[in-house]
Design a protein that fits this description.
With 349 residues, the protein is α/β, with parallel strands linked by helices. Helix content is 54%, strand content 7%. The protein has a 5-stranded parallel beta sheet with strand order 2-3-4-1-5, with helices on both faces. Strand 2 (98-101), helix 5 and strand 3 form a beta-alpha-beta unit. Helix 5 runs parallel beside helix 6 (142-153), helix 8 packs across helix 9 (204-213) and helix 8 (189-200) crosses helix 10. The protein starts with 10 loop residues before the first helix and ends with a helix.
C-alpha cells in the first residue's frame, strides 16, 4: 500500500487531508502534531504524492492488469496512484520539489532556513505543488524560527509547508497561528501488537509487551524488535539489582558504581533504560492491585514473587531515585555522576 491507505489508525487526520485535497482548500502551511512514529511523516509524504500524482490526470482504463486496477481503486479513494513517475520519485525521496528539512545535531539552524529561502525563490522544477516537510520543527533554534515565520507570513507560490512536532506548545505561538493544525493520536496497543506478529513473526505475548513499552508508537515498537529489547530488559533488571530490590543494600559500592559506569557508556540507551527500570518498579506495585494493567506481562510470576518481598513505600522511594536521575540528565547534568547518585540512592535501606 502507498499513500493514505498505508497510515494505520489515523482516520481523522487522513479524512481531514483528503477533504482538503478534494475541496482544493489545502492551506499554505500545516502543522502535524503527535508523538514520533504515529504516521505524521507518512501523511506528509502521502499529501505530497496526491498533490502531484500524474496518474490522476488521466482516468485509468476500465479493464487491465492488476497494477491498473490498484491505480483505479486508489484514485477513487482520494489516494495517489503510487505507480506514476511523480509518486515513485516522492516515495523514494528523489523528487526535486519535495524538500526535507531535519535537525542537524540537536537543532534546525538558521543556515538551513536560509538555504530553504533560496530554493523557494525559484519556480518548482516539475511539480504542480512543491512540498516542504520540516521534521521536528520544535528543534528550530530561535533565529531559525523567526526566519521561518517570515516565510509563513509571505508564503511562496505553489508551495505547501508541513511542520511536524510532538505538540503545538513546543513551537512559537506565532508560527502555530499561521498553520492549520492536524493532530495524530497514539496507536493502540492491540494494533501495534498485531502488526508485530504479522510483520516480525513475534509471539503474541512478546508483541504485547513491546506494544505496551512503545507507548503508542509503531516506529518505536519496530525499533525495539530490531534491538532485541526483551533480552536487554532482562539483563538491565538483573544487572541493576532491581530483580531483588530488597537485597540492593547488601551490594558493595563498587558493584553499584560499575553498573552506573556500564550504563553511562551506552548514552543512546540511557533514556530507554531508565524508563524500563521505572516500568519494572511500577509493575511491582500494580501487580498487587490490578495485575491486568502491568506492562511486563511476560514476567508476571516473577513480579508477584518480588512484590511480596518489598513494601510499596520502599518501591516508591526507588522510583523517585530514578525520576530524579531522569530530570538531572534531561537538564544536561553529568551523565555518569547522575547514574552513580541514582544507584547509591537505590541501595539505601
Amino acid at each position: 500500500m502507498s499513500g493514505f491507505e498505508s497510515i494505520i489508525e489515523q482516520e481523522r487526520p487522513v479524512r481531514i487531508l483528503r477533504t482538503l485535497y478534494r475541496k482544493e482548500t489545502i492551506p499554505h502551511a500545516l502543522l502535524f502534531t503527535g508523538q514520533e512514529g504515529v504516521g505524521k511523516h507518512s501523511a506528509a509524504i502521502a499529501l505530497a504524492m496526491i498533490c502531484n500524482c500524474m496518474g490522476r490526470e488521466t482516468p485509468p482504463p476500465s479493464h487491465g492488469d492488476a497494477q491498473n486496477q490498484l491505480r483505479s481503486a486508489a484514485i477513487r479513494n482520494d489516494d495517489p496512484c503510487g505507480v506514476c513517475p511523480a509518486c515513485r520519485k516522492i516515495m523514494s525521496g528523489n523528487h526535486p520539489d519535495v524538500i526535507h528539512i531535519r535537525p542537524t545535531g540537536a537543532t534546525i539552524k538558521i543556515a538551513q532556513v536560509r538555504a530553504l529561502f533560496e530554493a523557494l525563490s525559484m519556480k518548482p522544477y516539475e511539480a504542480r505543488m512543491r512540498v516542504v516537510i520540516i521534521t521536528d520543527a520544535h528543534a528550530m533554534n530561535p533565529s531559525a524560527g523567526n526566519a521561518l515565520l517570515k516565510m509563513l507570513e509571505e508564503p511562496p507560490d505553489r508551495t505547501i509547508l508541513i511542520l511536524t512536532a510532538p505538540q503545538r506548545v513546543d513551537l512559537l505561538p506565532t508560527i502555530v497561528s499561521r498553520c492549520q493544525l492536524v493532530r495524530f493520536n497514539p496507536i493502540t496497543r492491540s494494533t501495534i501488537a498485531a502488526e508485530l506478529v504479522k510483520e516480525h513473526g513475534l509471539e503474541k505475548q512478546a508483541a504485547s509487551v513491546l506494544a505496551a513499552v512503545s507507548n503508542g508508537s509503531l516506529t518505536r515498537a519496530k525499533a525495539l524488535v530490531q534491538s532485541d529489547w526483551l533480552r536487554y530488559r532482562s539483563w538491565l533488571i538483573a544487572a541493576s539489582g532491581l530483580a531483588a530490590p530488597e537485597k540492593l543494600e547488601t551490594r558493595n559500592t563498587g558493584q553499584l558504581l560499575a553498573f552506573a559506569e556500564t550504563l553511562s557508556t551506552r548514552k543512546e540507551m540511557v533514556s530507554d533504560s531508565l524508563a524500563a527500570l521505572l516500568t519494572w518498579l511500577r509493575d511491582l506495585i500494580v501487580c498487587r492491585y490490578a495485575p491486568e494493567r502491568i506492562v511486563n506481562t511476560d514476567l508476571i510470576d516473577k513480579l508477584q514473587r518480588v512484590s511480596q518481598k518489598n513494601p510499596v513505600g520502599a518501591i516508591m522511594d526507588k522510583m523517585d531515585a530514578i525520576r530524579t536521575a531522569q530530570k538531572a540528565i534531561e537538564a544536561n547534568a553529568n551523565l555518569r555522576l547522575s547514574l552513580e547518585v541514582m544507584m547509591l540512592r537505590l541501595a539505601e535501606a
